[in-house]
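Hi,

Apologies if this is the wrong queue. I'm a grad student, and the batch job for Acyl-CoA dehydrogenase from Nocardia terrae produced an output file that my downstream script rejects. I'm not sure whether the problem is my script or the file. Here is the sequence I used:
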Amino acid sequence: MSAESALRELISNLVATVGAVAGAGEVPELWLEMVKLGLDVVGVPEASGGADGSIEDLAQLSEALGQNGIGVPLIQASTANWVLSEAGEQVNAGVLAAVAFTDSTLNIEGRLSARVGPVPWARSAENVIVYTASGSPICYRIGDPGVSVEPGVNLAGEQSDAVVFTAAAGQVLAHAPTAGAVLARLGVLWSAALLGAIRGAYELTRNYVRTREQFGAPLVKIPAVAAGLASIRTQLLQAEASVYRAVEIYSIGPSEHAALPAAAIARTVCATAATETARLTHQLHGAMGITAEYPLHRFTTKLWAWRDAASSESEWAKLIGDITLERGERALWDELTATA
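Support response: The file is valid. Your script probably expects a header line. Output copied below for reference.
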């Protein structure tokens, strides 16, 4: 997965043209432009109404958005559209859908009663695909009887809502991918988004300490500042290695057996890197870093919010432990490091 690509350049050009700022709970205008270009159906076969493309394409888009400090419904939309296409459904470009998970089960009549969330961008979606504790996922239309949304926002000010189901009925997607396969896809893409935000925060901080002077010299000349910057760079490289490997493994075959542990490791590595990057970048910026006018918060609030998107850091870590106990440490290591 290259650090430079036409897709990354496309996002940069869109940001320069449309801008990146949106109010709390608002869908950025940039997303509307992305939908016009068909980016919401990347990764979906053209025969199913998509634009073709691979998980690597989606990862590059997710990383580019994060590097520009932008949150849009790309991961939710592309994953939901992929689930629909794999289930044999025709996908409608521009129709936003979301994916959610719950430990609840259906009643004997096949209806769901549960409060599910947080679900990113749910209030802007027309449909939500819910994976319950057992059985095939079900697609519900938001606004139908028994399906409502309780609005909320995450630390980055992005839509992070709860979807409330009250004896709700929906369309069963009998041939949809498994919950593990979907979780792996979400894990890879959210890791890529975190990687982009880490990179954006690092580049902003590096430029700041190189140009800001103290005692007649750039801040980076102070050993403690240089060490802090080097630590962020180390976190970035670790996150990059884990994400690029997860994308590579998923590209070989999106089965949850191979892809899920790689995604889980990328998520835990990137979440740890996100925490350290946010802490260090604010330390190196000092008071400047907490002002609304300065763009650092566009990255660090997303680092805090996205590290627990789809599933929390602790849940991903527990998953790694469970997989290791099931398969054995050596077997899992061999799977993750195998070469063609």
